[in-house]
Amino acid sequence: MRRLLSLLAAATISVSAAATLPSQQVLSGTCCPGAVWTPDSKALLFLDGPPARPATGIYQVPATGGSVTRRFSSVAFFSPKLAWAVRPGNGDATTLERLSDGRRFTLPTRGADVTWTRAETRLAYTRSDTTGNFDRRLSRVYVADVFGAPRQVATLYGGGVSGWINDTTLLLSGKAQPGVRDRELFTLDIRNGARRTLGQALSFRGVSLSPDGAWVVYYVAFDSKARNGLWIRPTAGGAARKLDAFGAYRWRDAGRLLLIPLQPDGSPHVLREYRMRENAWRTLGDLGDQVRQGDWSVSPDGQRMAYLSARNGNVRVLNLP
Question: Which residues does UniProt assign to the signal peptide (predicted)?
Fold first, then answer.
């Protein structure tokens, strides 16, 4: 705990004063947590139902505010491009439906999340044992082409899939054996099984690939002083950069990372931007508000940000400078 507190203390300094960024409330009535962007960045999708709406479903509101309409009448996990609806069943099977024609297939995911390639023609998922210490729990990683049969490509302990770097390479984290201390963050070529280890740590948290898969950001805590902190590193191999910051982060695009620094004093959240090419930070402004429960997202085109206001529980949108 002392090491974590030291990390947080170091990370909460040096947040310069910032002007308040104008934002617009686009939903009302304490609505709604978990809103996500449509692929064209023009609207937000959210789950809602009675009494605020006439029926349960996935609703849509323009990013500039306006009329709310129902986009999907059924509830499911939708792929980022809204090409697929994923519906876990009561048993092992998950049904995946292509929305363009209603064609379906099933996979034995046992309710696990599926991770799509950018083209959404292939996916991966992790099936883990359901009992026992997570650090020692056996996990099997599978890949499948759409409408195809799954194929196991890796066995891990206490880990799983972090994302697709490209159509043939996965980013994974986990332990090779249940009794070892450290996990590995590594890439796996599913065509030939070739692995590249990117780093080792007690645990990799908040692992997030850049939109082009070239970079990965994560943080390490409760490890050695040399390992703790927020890190960004190239997935093709090379030296990692330790970022002098700590907080919630999202990719804006392939070259910029947004971060809301941890500010335990209750002041408005500040939005900062790290530029990969310059290896430098700039402060974009403050929200004049706080983000509730870490609920914020960046539009796919990198031009807007949506967040759930801590002030009144409604979704607000701002244009990113």
Answer: 1-19
